[in-house]
Amino acid sequence: MNAHTLAAALPTAADQPTDAAAIHAAALLLLPHIERGERIDAAVLRTAMETAFGASDTAGAWDWKDAYDACEAATVLMLRKYGKALLRKAGSPAAAVPLFGKIAGLLPTHTRRSEEAQAFQQFSTPIPLGLAAITAAAITPADRVLEPSAGTGLLAILAEIAGGTLVLNELAETRAALISSLFPAIPVTRFDAAQIDDHLDPATVPTIVVMNPPFSVLANVEGRVADAAYRHLASALARLADGGRLVAITGANFGPDIPAWRDAFVRLQERGRVVFTAAVHGSVYAKHGTTVETRLTVIDKIPADEPSAFPASPGTAPDIATLMTWIAEHVPPRLAVAPAVQVMPT
Q: Into how many domains does the chain fold?
């Protein structure tokens, strides 16, 4: 289906599509541009959004946060179509970083933020950083992979490519509907991820958690919450199967080597051992509208022999290539997981 045919098939304003359906429709219009290696500039993006929504942003039909979500949804579609082939061509995840970087480079920088994006700290994962997180997770087809704050699916699609069976949760209404349309075979729950262990079905026991939680906000709580990331991580770790692995992207100031968080990580290590942590330079996130430094932390679900002892951090990775090297050098092999909670390959 070409762009003109697709545009004709899209809902008109009179049909009043849901925001998620229109965002998905815009993503389908953007996908051919990405496939051709064309940059998505403001004019291309505006045309796709106006076609999908049947009206302009000035008319209040959509905002630029919706437009950025459409770009990310198009990236999900692109990776589903070509991701495995790109990884095969590269030969390794580390060698694929430049290829994934080229895809990310085609998308516009997030320069306009909506109130919802600010309130929920909806900074989606740049796909090169997501590739690093998925590499650290070492996902196999036997894994059930939980993403507690699934956003637009940029981490989820990488976990899918790696062969994992997905368990997706997203609190924000439009994003939850969007990710449901992008992953139609997977039920998407809408729980507060800071309490994910309290709400998921008891039978849902992931062997992997990959997460990029809000750094300092909680649902239904006004203002900044200093321990927001800790609450998200602790609840996800509680739900993780024994022997499973949790990989978290957080703010750089949330780590065991940060004095303010040392005691919290000592408590975490009573249940799960930190095996790797490294800060990541803020430039990695620049395309997504922030230059805040982040951190990649890997925790294996086994009590630490000495909860107050942590692995030395290699420092702050200046780029994803360096981070991938550190992951290869410092992240240990996975632990064995109880067979009862593994997903048997079909």
A: 2
Q: Measure the CA–CA gap between 298 and 301, rounded to whole angstroms.
A: 10
Helix (H, G, I), strand (E, B) or coil at 319: coil
Domain residue limits at 92: 18-105
What is the spatial distance between Cα 228 and Cα 233, in angstroms, rounded to a whole number? 9
Whether 217 and 119 have beta carbons less than 8 Å apart is answered as yes
Which tokens belong to 4? Answer: 């003109």
Domain stop point among 86, 105, 124? 105
Q: Which DSSP string do the residues of 161-193 spell out, in sequence order? A: HTTPEEEEE--SHHHHHHHHHHSTTS-EE---G
Judgement on whether residues 239 and 151 belong to the same structural domain of the protein: yes
Residue at a domain's end among 79, 105, 131: 105
| pLDDT tens string 230-264 | 999 999 999 999 999 999 999 999 999 999 999 99
**What is the token pair recorded at 154?**
């940029």
Of residues 5 and 276, more confidently modeled: 276
Residue 86 shares a structural domain with residue 128: no
Nearest to 266 by CA among 317, 225, 307, 296: 307
Residue 277 lies in a domain: yes
Q: Which two tokens stand for residue 219?
A: 């649902």
